Automatic annotation (TrEMBL):
It holds the Pfam family Asp_Glu_race. GO terms for molecular function: amino-acid racemase activity. It comes from Elongatibacter sediminis. This is Aspartate/glutamate racemase family protein. InterPro entries: Asp/Glu/hydantoin_racemase, Hydantoin_racemase-like, Iso_Racemase_Enz_sf. Coiled coil: none annotated.
Length: 245
């Protein structure tokens, strides 16, 4: 089973190979062959957290999705919690496409009654409040708690990131009534284990959803089950038909 992770933003080639190796180490399964593709063009805007950046990401995601399907890849995951272009990709390719944002929120509804999103900045908080409303999950959303660190700085300030995540998680549970937490940036994934330990140490027994883990495993489940998105909900477009012929 071959799954390709589609980066929404440019990743230099050496870093891309390192990322692929890191993902295989952290999320690899015997039946899962993971690969990564990133946009070939330089970024159109500097800040990733903007509607403009998310919009510019879509054409390159489409290009990489079409290439993946032509290569025989079995399923696709977009590496961005905002799920840019998910519906477009589903009209473009026939293989299953999942975004970590909606997948994580839907899994959270299976595990508890109210979930909170641990987000990066004010933009993310506003974006995901609206995303939860559009996907009709807002009734289950307890809060968006932000750490006020842009995605590109999460690793550079790892100590501060972990402390801010811990404080946000505790507030979400104790003040907002959340019983399930989502790391609402794929850049938070390396902090998942340590954050879980910090919450356990405080006696807070809540599921902590790593979006990469749940999305890749959900994708594997769909592939194993022979399922993909509905052709009625997401009818093929001219570009997908032309590419297949």
């Amino acid at each position: 089973m071959q799954v390709r992770v589609l980066e929404a933003f440019v990743v230099p080639e050496p870093e891309l190979q390192a990322l692929a190796g890191e993902l295989r180490t952290r999320y690899g399964r015997d039946d899962l062959d993971l690969s990564v593709a990133a946009p070939a063009r330089p970024p159109e805007v500097e800040a990733h957290e903007s509607m403009t950046a998310l919009s510019y990401a879509v054409p390159e995601l489409v290009r990489n999705a079409l290439e993946a399907e032509a290569e025989g890849i079995d399923g696709l995951m977009v590496d961005c919690m905002a799920d840019p272009g998910i519906e477009v990709l589903r009209e473009t390719v026939s293989i299953p496409v999942l975004g970590p944002g909606i997948t994580s929120m839907q899994v959270a509804t299976l595990l508890g009654r109210r979930f909170s999103l641990l987000v990066t900045t004010d933009f993310s908080s506003r974006y995901f409040h609206e995303y939860a409303r559009r996907t009709r999950l807002n009734a289950r959303l307890a809060s968006c708690r932000q750490v006020d660190i842009p995605p590109e700085q999460l690793q550079a300030e790892s100590g501060h990131t972990l402390q801010a995540l811990t404080e946000a998680a505790v507030q979400a549970v104790e003040s907002d009534g959340a019983d399930t937490l989502i790391l609402c940036c794929t850049g938070f994934a390396p902090f998942s284990a340590r954050l879980g330990e910090a919450l356990d140490a405080r006696g807070l027994s809540v599921p902590l959803i790593d979006p990469f883990a749940v999305t890749l495993n959900a994708l594997a489940m769909l592939i194993h089950s022979g399922l993909s998105h509905s052709g009625i909900a997401f009818p093929a477009t001219a570009i997908s038909a032309q590419h297949r012929h």
